[in-house]
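Quick look at the format.
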Amino acid sequence: MIGRGPGEPRGGPARPGAGDVIATMTGFARTLRAAGVDAGPERLQAMVTALDHLNVLDPHDVYWAGRLTLCADPGDLSRYDRCFAAYFSGQTARPGRPAPPTVIIRHVAVPVSASGDRDTEDEEPADDVQTATASAVEVLRHRDVAGLSPAERAEVNRLIALLDASTELRRSRRLTPASSGRLDQARTIRTVLRRGGEITRLHHRAHRRKPRRVVLLIDVSGSMSPYADALLRFGHAALRSGTRTTEVFSVGTRLTRLTRELRHRVPDAAMVAASAAIPDWSGGTRLGEELKEFLDRFGQRGMARGAIVLIASDGWERGDAGLLGEQMARLHRLAHRVVWANPHKARPGYEPLTGGMVAALPHIDDFVAGHSADALAELAEVIGAVRRRSPITAAGREERNRGA
């Protein structure tokens, strides 16, 4: 199949078979359902039937066939456009925070008798009464994921799948031709020699801009089990946003690299693969030892150097808290920024008093919560912050993170 209307890559000359079209559109329908669009089997069949009468190699025909059959209300259109671009063209969806569905307004009219008087059985005012139902999605965005029902958790998972966790751009050492910047003497001289010694144009070059690397270390120990699934899904969304610049690890009693497993297009399939790869799910916590192993095997060799490193954990350290403090200091010297997401931070009266948090806090640049879909959206914004954070002292950082 091929991409969406404007800006999509054109397909090859061979027309795909019916089996290829059905398989492709079935996968697209799954993507829409994960994004919150009710693209059920009946709507999918309607789209396949419509494509039988259209040119499946024409992006315009494919786009409008799906839009007219798979979307049920105006709130689905923006999700459909983002999913179409991400699925067919490989573009990254950038929705920001998922928009809640339109609030439903119901008008209740008071019945009036033929004589013009109010009905004796209804004593409500004659004016129309407008009642609005609150958006369930808006409420779920702020709910703690640890207390959700299976149906509510499925809805929150769809919101997480839409997150844009792309990171900021950093300046590379490599130079590229540019309209302004430093003078490219060699290229300018070559042009002059080709034109017989006449200077007609000065060539310039500037540093390239490339996405900054993001590394996620997600605690999957027993104390983090209510939040591990949502945080791993956040890691999947981060990988979708920056496939080549994002790495995901699980930490507990062992360090496990999950980047390959979480690269699967479908979030549920990625979670199944990640779960099978994690040998210490709901086990103990030895953050200091696992962080040391990460820095020795990956971080010191370049993965953490100049990167944004996110640690998602509640800080319950069963090992040596002093070792965790030493490795956090080592990580802070290598990384561009260190972000710590603790789901318990959102609880009223929370204080980071556990041994692991006390040891790690002086070496953290951003201390945030990760307990809900809204908190994960804010976490995505922290990772994608463009401006460089000004250095602060350890005492000032601790005071700020405690909300003093």
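Next, a different chain entirely:
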Amino acid sequence: MTSRPAGHLPLPPLRVWSTTYVRDVPSVKSVGLFATLHHRRQAQLHGFDDALFSDQEGGISEGGTWNIGFFDGSRVIWPNADCLVGVTMDLLKATHDHETRSLRLDDLTNMRAAFATNAAIGVRAVSAIDGVELPASHAIIDTLRKEYMEIECDVL
């Protein structure tokens, strides 16, 4: 086993636009990305970087190619929703104390930070969801990045 190479710079924070969408079979990875890419493009046309999916009641689930997590000031929170559980999200759940609970768009004003996770990006700050501004940098995001980078990799 070896660790990830150090020294890469984090990507700029994401600004995301919520849209009502639930994947047909959320727990199964699929090449059928038309709908997710369509929602991403709609978000971009509205001046955002990407789309955040929610159900009809405003329950937050995931982004098109990433999972989302939050920090409420004391704990990391992952949405309790049907989604494709990503490897990075799963690794962070194993290394950092967290809570999984239902989160709605109405809950965003109670969050101190938000972040996206994906194997290609690691941990990336989310600085806005719709009109709710969040910090572009926060200690919890730095901590999660550090913990993620310290996870030993399997040598292939």
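The chain is about 20% helix and 30% strand.

See the schema section for token definitions.
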